[in-house]
Amino acid sequence: MSADTIITRYFTAFNAGDTQTMLALVSDDVEHFVNQGGMRRGRAKFAEFCAHMGVSYREELRDLVIFANDDSTRAAAEFTVHGEYLQTDPGLPQARGQRYVLPAGSFFTLDGDKITRITTYYNLQDWIDQVSQ
Predict the structure, then answer these.
(1) pLDDT per residue as tens digits for the range 40-68
(2) Assigned CATH class of 3-131
(3) Within its chain, how far is the Cα of 123 from the centroid?
(4) pTM given for the model
(5) Phi and psi dihedrals of 56, rounded to 5?
(6) H or E element that contains 60
């Protein structure tokens, strides 16, 4: 399966709230780097992150553009996050159902049909400014 196909499936599952499909696409020892945070290693830690995100945020990724190298071992995606802040995340502004629109990107490493690394970037200060209004 090509990197483009795997990453498209990953983001389709994200938009559908289908965590099980997302988990099936990552390796057992996936490295997940969260924007301006640490690294979580393993499918179980990634599942915990997804569960937390599903409670605190409702997000849809739009304007998705995927880039992949010829041997399908690396990929990147650019997109716009359209979200709603549902439940206060510790250390962040209080959630009141604020909506936000945020440009973002993710980088991936793949091994065969599995994602082995996910690194996501967005402008946290932009997000804080939007939800603080």
Answers:
(1) 999 999 999 999 999 999 999 999 999 99
(2) alpha beta
(3) 14
(4) 0.94
(5) -90, -25
(6) strand 57-68
Provide the pLDDT for residue 115.
Answer: 98
Residue 106 neighbours by CB distance under 10 Å: 23
**Residues 67-83, mean pLDDT to the nearest whole number:** 97
Rounded to whole angstroms, the Cα distance separating 108 from 121 reads 12
> Domain spans of the chain?
3-131
Following DSSP, what letter does each residue of 74-108 receive, concatenated?
A: EEEEEEEEEEEE-SPPTTSPPPSS-EEEEEEEEEE
Indicate whether 13 pLDDT > 90: yes
Nearest to 57 by CA among 108, 104, 25, 118: 104
Planar angle of CA 36, 38, 40, nearest 5 degrees: 130
Burial class (CB in 10 A: 0-12, 13-18, 19+), 90: exposed
